[in-house]
Each structure stands twice: as structure tokens, then as C-alpha cells.
């Protein structure tokens, strides 16, 4: 009905805005990284050309952003597990978004979870197949989120260093999608969260 159509519109708008924001965040990180590399290259070039102790000050470019540079420092300090960190950040960002979309932060109802991207049998039958992915980042309350992220961090801390970021990310989505589909089709469960993906990775 009109209510379901309205919820779907809100969902598309909310998650679309969120992923656009994530892309902009990554662009800021890349811009800060480029700015840092260019400054290092400039300094090395000056040192090669002038073999004197006192060098002329290097002309500074306009800073990109303190926030983006902080993100670069943070990613560098955890450079062996960037995929795990990005998945955790995505889950946190998606949770904040779903709360703003009307989901209760402590103990949401099933219909609230399903309205913001959870996976159900009705959603699959309606052809909303993209929910097999979005359900991975939807969590039913703050405690569900905290426990899920704890599992994801513990799993990623070990496995990402072994598999590498790309293979770890691919394995995460394969396990998560398979768990969501299996839970709905075989057990008629409403699916939300990264538990299925993390259990699949552990297996």
C-alpha cells in the first residue's frame, strides 16, 4: 500500500545518501593522501637539488582538511586490516542512519527493522533482492550492533591479515548473502546483521 511505498522511498533516500557520504569520505582520504605524498616528493626534490644544510622553505599548499588527514593517520595505523575497519564504520553509519529513519535504538520492532532494509520472505517474493546485502548492515538495536561488531572485529583481526583485504571482503559478502538467503528460505527467519557473515568466515 501507500505506507509500504513511503517506507521504500525513505529507505532508498536514506541509504543512497549514506553511501554517497561514504564515497565523499573516501575521496577526502585519497585527497589527503595525495597531498601528503606530493609534499614528500617536493621535499625530496629540493634536497637533491640543493646540497646545503639550510634549505629554502617549501611553499605550502592549502591544507585539504584536518578531518581527512586524521582519517589517513587512522587508516595508516591500522593498514593491515582496512577492510575490517571499513565494514565496522559502514555498520555504525548504517545504524545511525536507520535510527534517524525511525527505528528504535534499544529494542526495535520487527517491522521497524524490516522497513529500513532487513530481509524477509515477503521482501524476496516482492523482488527486493538487494536486501540480501543491505540486511548485513541493519541491526536490531544498540546491543545487537555492539555484539555484532565485536564478532566482526575478532574475526577480521585474524582472517584479514591471512587472506588480505580484497579476499576477506569478498568472503564476507559471500558468507553474509548465503546466510541471509538460507535463513529466509529454509528457516523463515527475518534476517539482519553481520552474524551470518562472521559465522561463515569462522567456518
Average predicted confidence as pLDDT:
78
- Give helix % range: over 70%
Principal-axis shape equals elongated
Uncertain segments are none
Structural write-up:
The chain is mainly α and 203 residues long. It is built from nine helices and no strands. Helix 1 (2-49) runs antiparallel to helix 3 and helix 3 runs antiparallel to helix 7 (142-163). The longest helix is centred in the N-terminal third of the chain and has 48 residues, at 2-49. The two termini are 41 Å apart. The mean pLDDT is 78.
Q: How are the secondary structure elements laid out?
A:
Elements: H1 2-49, H2 66-77, H3 82-100, H4 110-115, H5 121-125, H6 131-134, H7 142-163, H8 165-187, H9 195-202
Helix pairs in contact: 1-2, 1-3, 3-7, 7-8, 7-9, 8-9
Short description:
With 203 residues, the protein is an all-alpha fold. The protein is built from nine helices and no strands.
State the main characteristics:
single chain, 203 residues, mainly alpha, 72% helix, 0% strand, elongated
